[in-house]
Amino acid sequence: MDKKFNFKAYVTNLGKYNEGELLGEWVSFPTTREDMQGVFERIGINKQYEEYFITDYDTDISNLKEKLGEFENVDSLNYLASRLNELEDYEFEMFKEVLSTGIDLAEPDSLETCINLTYNLDTYVFMPGVNDQYDLGHYLVNEFGGYDLEKMGDLANYIDYEAYGRDAMINDFGGFSDNGYISYTNEEWCMEFDGKEIPEEYRVTGTGGEKQQVQAAEPQEQTEVNFPEGIDEAKLDELAEEMLLEAQAASQGPVLGM
Length: 258
Hints:
Distance between the termini: 30 Å
CATH superfamily of the largest domain: Antirestriction protein ArdA, domain 1
CATH topology of the largest domain: Ubiquitin-like (UB roll)
Oligomer: single chain
Shape: elongated
Helix content: 25-40%
Strand content: 5-15%
Number of strands: 6
Number of domains: 2
Order of helices and strands: EHEHEHHHEHHHEEH
């Protein structure tokens, strides 16, 4: 059964945008090759306009949007969404809990990190109902079984649970979600995805899934652009400027969207 989560990207024709026209479409992931090719046709991705970028994301998975960039290949986005659908319910909940803590993962924040997280959820432990450092210290001392409180006698009344919990967080690289505490077991991740080659069953564009490199476009006089509902105009202008600066610094040619 498909998971009930929202994960959308506004895929935009880069060439048309440089000409002053915002031509794009919201795509819900996971998607199919047929549906994605239909989107490309409607937004004019073809031999003349081969490049696209992601104008915006919409998702109800906490902190996921912040890990995604404007040059992501839609094959990679589809890979992540498909992996989330394939997880067992408890695994999917663990994925959301880990992301919601904002803790550092086993590699820098990125789409590739999120995909690899789906293969490494067993390297984390979730403690529901543990909501602050005091709760964590109390849980580790009283529930985890690390100490014999009876033998400690009256000394047990002087335990600083908050300080103990704070030290535990530092030692296990843990963090609090909305529903509890996540700790990292320090087990080495299995790196299934290197950011390049995507399994065939997840591809919807016919490419290998690498991030796009775009070429700098010649400056043109921008005409008025009609922004669809849900798109932040100021954010898009800032994004376009960042893209142009990155493109000017890029040494490689474009990776085609088709």
